[in-house]
Fold this sequence. Notes:
This protein has four helices and no strands.
Amino acid sequence: MVWSRQRHQVADAVIDALSGMLQSIRQQCVNPTLTYGGLSPIDKYLGSLVQAMDEHIHAITIQKSEEAQAELARTDEAARLDDQQRRARAGQVQQQIAEWDGIGRSMKALMADLQALDQAPEPAAALAPGV
């Protein structure tokens, strides 16, 4: 019975000490301080996150604006091209596509040759090395 009472008293003392520590930590985190310009550490941290997000959003906005301006410049250039220039460019693109198609056909033929070599039977001399 004495042990039970002592354990209960010790447990109460530990709970009181932990409650005091928790209250102290809460006050340090939530209460405004002069260190952070009258803000609490949590408010200061959240404010810095908001500022970092604002800066990131601003950087993305600038990047997207530059991309849009580049796209606008490209479309303006395309609109200025006269019919002859468009035909010349179209011919160049068609020639490039034809070259790529030729490369593709060459690659297919090469792959077929390599597959045929892989499937070819072994020469008889390789089967009987002592002959």
